[in-house]
UniProtKB/TrEMBL annotation, chains A, B, C, D:
Keyword Metal-binding: yes
Protein name: L-ribulose-5-phosphate 4-epimerase
Taxonomic path: Bacteria, Bacillati, Bacillota, Bacilli, Bacillales
Molecular function (Gene Ontology), one example: metal ion binding
Enzyme class: isomerase
PANTHER family registered for this protein in UniProt: FUCULOSE PHOSPHATE ALDOLASE (PTHR22789), L-RIBULOSE-5-PHOSPHATE 4-EPIMERASE SGBE (PTHR22789:SF8)
Its EC number(s): 5.1.3.4
A Pfam family: Aldolase_II
Biological role stated in the UniProt entry: Involved in the degradation of L-arabinose. Catalyzes the interconversion of L-ribulose 5-phosphate (LRu5P) and D-xylulose 5-phosphate (D-Xu5P) via a retroaldol/aldol mechanism (carbon-carbon bond cleavage analogous to a class II aldolase reaction).
GO biological process, one term: arabinose catabolic process
Catalytic activity line of the entry: L-ribulose 5-phosphate = D-xylulose 5-phosphate
Length: 235, 235, 235, 235
């Protein structure tokens, strides 16, 4: 079942080491079939070079394994929570890519400081509050999903316009309309995390960009009158 | 038409990912035929691995597409503005190379701190003022070109002696006598941006070089009595 | 003798340059046969590309060469001291991987700042006190082993839960249940050293993680109810 | 003439891009035949991928070309000055490797902070004073050699024990008993420059190592009772 989605999820998982975003097995990608209410996700702790489409695990939105011989990623409850809350997204990526993880460890949002950021993220990439002891001990991965959703709800953020988040003391999650776009955003996030880190270093801590420049760059790629790229093409 | 220039522009575009200067499609190179008053430029948002010489778009100095099936780079008006103002240049490169972009985001010129810089840039690499809201909203890419030209005019800079600029909160543009030399300068710029960043880190923020050393290094490569390299060769 | 262990030690040594952890010959891996009381270790100063399983040197726990034509690694007395004190470990790695070495040179422990760290190291990665003049001059490599053991004893650390140490002004040692796991920990250590360095840079020096998050992440991989990865698999 | 030395100098030059130390043509290696009083050096500004042994230029100790169709490296007078003053060296390397160049631009010596440094450099790697206007304008490359020699003479440094220097606002020179060892030292220098930079970042600027540890590490590799590596082998 879901052959095409499994292939897309496999390919997106394999793209992570290709882009230098993961060490060993530290990353996972999932995709959802909204029609079937089923999520396809990487199995937990399997080396990328051995993954096949048949290894992908199918789970329903209650987290029950519907198909697959392997245990799904331990982060599956986080993915499911995001699919439930962010209804327009089709793929999710989790990595520990080092520059983005450093911002998460510093518990700081990645500030929008330039057009590279504005081309894909319509404002700062937020960081969640730290989870409480109770949340961590009771249902850690589920609560990780919930605190991401809380972060977007409380700040009135649109997950389509800001397709990334940093989980405090942990690492980033990104998403997109499908698994491939979620990977694309993971690559961009790592790059803007590096640039923002170096900007702080160079400027001695002070830096900002004008809201109208952020707006312009985001809209020329994603607004209704977008004119970047070829008509009808993705990026 | 312009077969040779298209090949040169294609090759220069392909050199960008080879030198590690671009992620995905974030970069573009153009070249000009001064005789024909025509610019050849990369199409917008097309993956590098798929580009062919025939994909290159030919535009005139009013920005009208003269030949080509694809939409030209969205940065085309910036390129044209630079070709009009800087009459001796033959090729232009735009990238978001990370170290140079970090200086642009910090709104700081890259100071001339050593001979690596002085070998190619005869003084600091300037940063433009931020564009105004009006400029951004009215004709963003055109105004980006204008603010670069303004930066050189107001500071009395020679674009041949300083073949690079940082656009505030954006990223670098570099240029040269042809597309290949513009790429060469983009590579050098990223390297001197990294070195200058690390110099600040090591020195705690203070650093400078003597004007006569800057002068010597620039002149031994580019002055009328230049003696670096082989007689008649480029670099 | 010990054919299988020699192959494992060779493979682990070759993994060091593959993971970018060593320059030239600056690294060594050993493995122990607890049953035989014998250690297999890389010969000193031999280039990785020339190493064969037969080049591996067999030494007993008094440091005497039992088999092998080459001189064992000059760090052999350090390895032996660790095998004697940490009875459950089966492999040891020493590298000068640059980010971890920078922490060692700064004489600072690598603080546990995120889940990447917590997944493998159950707390800060400690740094030893500097050796005294007497220790350095009398029996340097042996005393290096002793000061590592002293560090773990005095702080009540379990070498299985924290399989790494920084030797002050020197570089890291890591270990594991076998040579391959020791290499795995060396790779993780370098990554968390980079992330922690960048976290300090971003946060301006302040950063911490909650003990219960550290606990959760370590236990979900290594506790008795671990649920990361596939049942029965290593990582 | 000097066929073997030309091959050694060619190979050493080709090793520079292989180790990631040079961009474009920014580096050069030479070797000397003490018996003949002749230096073999890379031609100026020729791309590495096109170099052959026959392109190497032979010059005498007055800087006159004795053999070769190409112009020798513009840094030839610096090399010659070092060969004259440092009588036991057989090869010299000049690069603009970025981390070492950043220290040179900061006009700071690279402090001996750990054993990676101590294994090859017996103390801080010194930085020259900036050249005067007169020195730069009169005989720049010759004076660069002279200020290096002055730095070693005034501080009582032994060029065999400290086979590297930073020229202020410029970049490093390293040397060794032959061209290959000079390259080896250039690689080590770049690595210790990176480590020292990161050590400053982590420690907030304060760091040091004990003189007796520096002494021990240097001597176990290079002293008369050296025991690192295999008997009779180089490193």
């Amino acid at each position: 079942m879901l052959r095409e989605l499994k292939e897309a999820v496999l390919e997106a998982n394999l793209a992570l080491p290709k882009h230098g975003l993961v060490t060993f097995t530290w990353g996972n990608v999932s995709g959802i079939s909204r029609q079937d209410g089923l999520v396809v996700i990487k199995p937990s702790g399997v080396a990328y070079e051995k993954l096949t489409a048949d290894d992908m695990v199918v789970v329903d939105l209650d987290g029950r394994v519907v198909e697959g011989d392997l245990r799904p990623s331990s982060d599956t409850p986080t993915h499911i929570e995001l699919y439930k809350a962010f209804e327009s997204i089709g793929g999710i990526v989790h990595t520990h890519s080092p520059a983005a993880a450093a911002w998460a460890q510093a518990r700081r949002p990645i500030p929008a400081l330039g057009t590279t950021h504005a081309d894909y993220f319509y404002g700062d990439v937020p960081v969640t509050r730290p989870l409480t002891k109770d949340e961590v001990e009771r249902a850690y991965e589920l609560e990780t999903g919930r605190v991401i959703v809380e972060t977007f709800r409380e700040r009135g953020l649109d997950p389509v316009a800001v397709p990334a988040v940093l989980v405090a003391n942990h690492a980033p999650f990104t998403w997109g309309k499908d698994p491939a776009e979620a990977v694309y955003h993971a690559v961009v996030l790592e790059m803007v995390a590096r640039m923002a880190r170096d900007t702080l270093l160079i400027s001695g801590g002070e830096a900002q960009m004008d809201a109208f420049l952020l707006d312009k760059h985001y809209q020329r790629k994603h607004g209704k009158n977008a004119y970047y790229g070829q008509p009808g093409a993705a990026h």
